Amino acid sequence: MELRYLAESPTHKVYSHADYVYLKDKTICKSQTDYEESDENIAWIYGEPDSAIITLDGEYVVIAGCGIVIYNIRTAEIVYLFDEPDSTEWTEGVYQNAIDDVVHVRFNVCTDNNNVVTKRLNLKSHDIEVLS
pLDDT tens digits, residue range 18-63? Predict the structure, then answer.
């Protein structure tokens, strides 16, 4: 099984295998480099994920690719945004900016006319702001 590592914090690691995204709890795992049954399958991304982050406060995993996926690490709540067939947004490069609140992430969207737009997402309210 070929794994692709997407994000890491002191306590967790996010990786993908094909279209599936997993969260590894480093405090209970036996191997930080191999799949284990304790690893949690947290998302399915059509076309494989582009990137992911674990937020600076360690509360969320945010995954870019076909849409955006928000996964709450504490509650295991998952939210899929912009992945419906009639409103798909291909996203990439999810990150947190030091000038934003900890509940915000930024990411790029590839538009229909091959432009790139940067958006800011509030992880709690799911409000979106177009920045460029």
Answer: 999 999 999 999 998 889 999 999 999 999 999 999 999 999 999 9
Classify residue 132 by burial, with Cβ atoms within 10 Å: 0-12, 13-18, 19+: exposed
Q: Which of 55, 107, 54 is nearest to 82 (CA)?
A: 107
Amino acid in position 45: I
Number of continuous H segments (helices) and E segments (strands) in the chain: 0, 12
Structure tokens at 1: 């099984």
Q: What is the pTM of this model?
A: 0.95
CA terminus-to-terminus distance, the chain: 39
CA distance 29 to 33: 10
- For β-strands 104-110 and 51-54, DSSP reports them as unpaired
Half-sphere exposure of 65 (CA within 13 A, CB side): 22
